[in-house]
């Protein structure tokens, strides 16, 4: 156990326990971390569902008045408290001023999203002019791929993970077909080594070096949705570009979760949704990045009115005056009711920094890993004892806040029992429950509560999985 937890995290946990004169697994340790968490006030900026409000909860098993254990921010972030206020303001403006709202008021609808691009750029490590807020993630991925994927007879492959998120896989597959190539020969899929759960950076780089002459685009995720692995985006970008490839990333699970430096790393393009760690609500406004080095060289393949420069847009000449860089990829005006929740969340992020959030995240997820391994590591001397296998890398530099857990017991039963007890997490086929303690609003006490609930869940699942004797 000591060797499988990063030593600095183990040291911190054990020193706190020593200071408190208690076990490292005691709830007192969690409470101590919370008391000394300088970001703990940010939790008050969000609305937490009560256990009784979650449909799967069984109130005979749990106190319905408690806040739920919300570990599913990797799927949908919590609602910032200011969301309703901002949406109500725009609805009221619409009611009172009608079309004048396009260009008047504190948040003119015609360029409302532009006011947020500085804040969004801070989260992804970019310049404001390299970031656009528009559309949904997959729409943006298609728009960017249409520009950056220019296959030739010799260089036509796209490199991606074997188990990429389905939407990314479908987008890549369709882009290849659109250009007249065959996905069976033009999709180059990366698989972990036999017996391993995640990809090694050296294997990704060696594949690029070996196949780079035939690769047009390297297209990976920033954080792998299933395993929770954080890819070394800087090393991958450097390797791909050295072989003449464009390098892009789907940062859906990385934005608001990991420290990103898209500009400094020289990433060619990226896209992301904002409804996970950036808390903009289901189907929220997505983001796109194009490095400034491509501002005048890589042009969008599809054009729309909103890609036209604002200064001449309303002259209606039908002669495109294209905005440089990523702004030229805009097609239509953005729904202001989607801008509102994103604004509410980005204002909370602006109260802190990704550096400080990442510091807390490393300890928060490390604490969860410590407790899971303490109680639920596989024990050969007790073959009937249930165990948990964490497929997410143990190295904090190779993961965000999510841990992907594989269980020795039937996973559906475990997931159902967790939901009954007010735990919001999610299950992903074939065999993983994903839990994500989000540093913006989750606490160390949440982690300890989860471990306590997990004990009762595994006990209940053992009973359910045992055959009935006659």
Automatic annotation (TrEMBL):
- Tell me which UniProt keywords the record has, alphabetically: Acetylation, Cytoplasm, Hydrolase, Pyridine nucleotide biosynthesis, Pyridoxal phosphate
Location comes to:
Cytoplasm
Claim: Acetylation is one of the keywords in the record: yes
Where, by residue number, does pyridoxal 5'-phosphate bind?
137-138, 165-168, 221, 250, 253, 275, 305, 333
* Biological processes per GO annotation: 'de novo' NAD+ biosynthetic process from L-tryptophan; anthranilate metabolic process; L-kynurenine catabolic process; L-tryptophan catabolic process to kynurenine; quinolinate biosynthetic process
Assembly and partners are described as: Homodimer.
Q: What is the name of the protein in this document?
A: Kynureninase
């Amino acid at each position: 156990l000591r060797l499988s937890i990063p030593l600095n995290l183990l040291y911190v946990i054990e020193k706190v326990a020593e200071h408190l004169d208690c076990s490292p697994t005691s709830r007192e340790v969690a409470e101590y971390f919370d008391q000394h968490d300088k970001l703990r006030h940010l939790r008050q900026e969000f609305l937490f569902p009560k256990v009784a409000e979650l449909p799967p909860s069984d109130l005979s098993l749990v106190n319905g008045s408690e806040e739920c254990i919300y570990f599913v921010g990797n799927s949908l972030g919590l609602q910032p408290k200011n969301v309703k206020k901002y949406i109500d303001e725009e609805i009221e403006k619409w009611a009172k001023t009608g079309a004048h709202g396009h260009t008047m008021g504190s948040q003119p609808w015609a360029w409302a999203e532009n006011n947020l691009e500085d804040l969004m750029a801070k989260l992804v490590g970019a310049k404001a002019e390299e970031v656009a807020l528009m559309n949904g993630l997959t729409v943006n991925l298609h728009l960017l791929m249409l520009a950056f994927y220019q296959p030739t007879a010799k260089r036509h492959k796209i490199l991606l993970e074997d188990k990429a998120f389905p939407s990314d896989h479908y987008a890549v597959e369709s882009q290849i077909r659109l250009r007249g190539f065959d996905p069976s020969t033009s999709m180059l899929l990366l698989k972990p080594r036999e017996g391993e759960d995640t990809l090694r950076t050296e294997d990704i780089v060696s594949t690029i070096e070996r196949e780079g002459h035939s690769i047009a685009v390297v297209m990976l995720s920033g954080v792998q949705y299933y395993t929770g692995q954080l890819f070394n985006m800087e090393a991958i970008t450097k390797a791909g570009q050295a072989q003449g490839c464009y390098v892009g990333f789907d940062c859906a699970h990385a934005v608001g979760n990991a420290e990103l430096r898209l500009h400094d790393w020289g990433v060619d393009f990226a896209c992301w949704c904002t409804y996970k760690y950036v808390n903009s609500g289901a189907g929220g406004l997505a983001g796109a990045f194009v490095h400034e080095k491509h501002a005048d060289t890589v042009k969008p393949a599809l054009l729309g009115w909103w890609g036209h420069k604002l200064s001449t847009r309303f002259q209606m000449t039908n002669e495109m005056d294209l905005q440089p860089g990523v702004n030229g990829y805009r097609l239509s005006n953005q729904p202001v009711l989607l801008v509102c929740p994103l604004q509410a969340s980005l204002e909370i992020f602006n109260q802190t920094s990704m550096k400080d959030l990442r510091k807390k995240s490393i300890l928060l997820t490390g604490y969860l890993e410590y407790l899971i391994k303490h109680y639920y590591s596989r024990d050969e001397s007790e073959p009937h004892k249930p165990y948990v296998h964490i497929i997410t890398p143990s190295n904090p530099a190779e993961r965000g806040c999510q841990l992907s857990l594989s269980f020795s017991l039937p996973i559906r039963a475990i997931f159902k029992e967790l939901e009954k007890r007010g735990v919001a997490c999610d299950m992903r086929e074939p065999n993983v429950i994903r839990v994500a303690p989000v540093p913006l609003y989750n606490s160390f006490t949440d982690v300890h509560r989860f471990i306590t609930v997990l004990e009762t869940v595994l006990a209940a699942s053992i009973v359910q999985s045992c055959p009935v004797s006659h």
